[in-house]
């Protein structure tokens, strides 16, 4: 069957992978479809910093030959993937969205890039992002402001905004993002796609430009939960050269996708999860919870006594650690930073050691309370963020009562909890606001229990169609 | 309730000096509002975490140790 490029772009990653293995679609066709789509839309989106057209076509041809010879490189054989540009890729530009690294070509792949290549993935490009991942808008002063494919006047969130936009716009079948305070989950929610922040230590950070060492993670961003589980399985697992990774066995994350949620205990914190958010977001998440109850899950009200105060702890840690990493550049090249990142780095230098350590003690307190709660629930579900996409360039947001709030603090209202506690968290699209902008819910799980997150998300997607919608570009 | 701290431009410059950060002229006005708000919130968290009931809590960041069996490497 001959498929048009539009039909090829519309395939999910899992569908494309199956068709490649059955020799019904060639990797060459998939790469051509991705590259054509990038050429057609990226002028408007600014999702890509680098596009590897020639290399991707060469690898696709080789992948096609191997397929026809009966050789299978792995779950991602022949699949076009893109990576956030803070992930090192050997001998190709890795800028971290910055002017300071504008000419850097690493000598080695990041561990995650190596694993993706070993699984057969074909890299079509490197993705735009908030400079050095230190921000939530992807309004990049050096490479252009990334735009939301659902409405290009609106932002894609961040810092993995290019990854979110690229996947939503069907320019690649999956992308890699990184998440410190929400940088996979936020653009996943805002762009209507799936993204997972893994358990801290589940995926290697080796070869990724750090933001905050004690909170950094990397993970896949895809159109469906099935795709995310498939891609996650290729990157998860201990890395002997990254001492922060855990010696915990992985599993086939696709194996339990069809097992449903009957009996799943979903924790909600009514005084925090359903407080201070835009009405369409509240309604969509509550409807999603009703859907899951209809599938046999049960809702359990939970009180986390010390959840308030998490944003201050988040900001203290997430500013002190990057300011430490950037000390030399901030003194040698301060004018080469964007205005917002420069300010945040300067601020992080002026917090006290006791502020930082009290925030780290707070993390222990919060994690203890969540681990205690996991005796009576299996997951928590809440909104991923309290608002839908704001206009590009906005530094303030109105959530309720017409009051403008600082974007950075507001955007972390819900994502800070997994970041501080090290717990895994999956964004799943769960609706649209009256202007057609996506809404996402966050499913938070026990340490190293990503399989349950995927199972819950897959069950939800088996009876809803939000993940099948595509922006009109 | 302790008074909300006010940061003067001079105080911001002193903080920068303590950090050996050569802050360009005028930068103190740019960063002062956010810095003051974050310090205020951080001090509130510090007061909370200093309470007697939290005395036993250790920071979440700890040293990692090599595995007992080096052959596992």
Report on this model:
The complex is a heterodimer of chains A (473) and B (73). Chain A has 473 residues and is α/β, with parallel strands linked by helices. Chain A has 17 helices and 15 strands. The two termini of chain A are 26 Å apart. With 73 residues, chain B is an all-alpha fold. Helices cover 45% and strands 0% of the residues of chain B. Chain B is built from 2 helices and no strands. At the A-B interface, helix 11, helix 13 and helix 14 of A face helix 1 and helix 2 of B.
Number of helices of chain B: 2
Percentage of residues in helical conformation of chain A: 25-40%
Number of strands of chain A: 15
Q: Identify the overall geometry of chain B.
A: flat
SS class of chain A: alpha/beta
**Which stretches of chain A of 5+ consecutive residues score pLDDT under 50?**
none
Strand content of chain A: 5-15%
Overall pLDDT confidence of chain B: 85
Q: Using DSSP, what is the number of strands of chain B?
A: 0
Please give a handful of descriptors for the protein shown.
A: 473 residues; alpha/beta; eleven-stranded mixed sheet; 17 helices; B: 73 residues; 0% strand; flat
Task: Put the structure in a nutshell.
The complex is a heterodimer of chains A (473) and B (73). With 473 residues, chain A is of the alpha/beta class. Chain A is built from 17 helices and 15 strands.
Helices and strands in order:
The complex is a heterodimer of chains A (473) and B (73).
Chain A: H1 5-10, H2 13-21, H3 27-45, E1 48-51, H4 53-68, E2 80-84, H5 111-118, E3 122-127, E4 139-140, E5 144-145, H6 161-168, E6 174-179, H7 185-191, E7 194-197, E8 217-222, H8 225-235, E9 265-268, H9 270-273, H10 279-294, E10 298-301, H11 310-325, H12 327-332, H13 339-348, H14 353-373, E11 379-383, E12 396-398, E13 404-406, H15 407-411, H16 416-421, E14 425-432, E15 438-445, H17 450-462
Parallel strand pairs in A: 2-3, 2-6, 9-10, 9-11
Antiparallel strand pairs in A: 1-3, 4-5, 6-8, 7-8, 7-14, 11-15, 12-13, 14-15
Helix pairs in contact in A: 3-4, 6-7, 8-17, 11-13, 11-14
Chain B: H1 9-18, H2 27-49
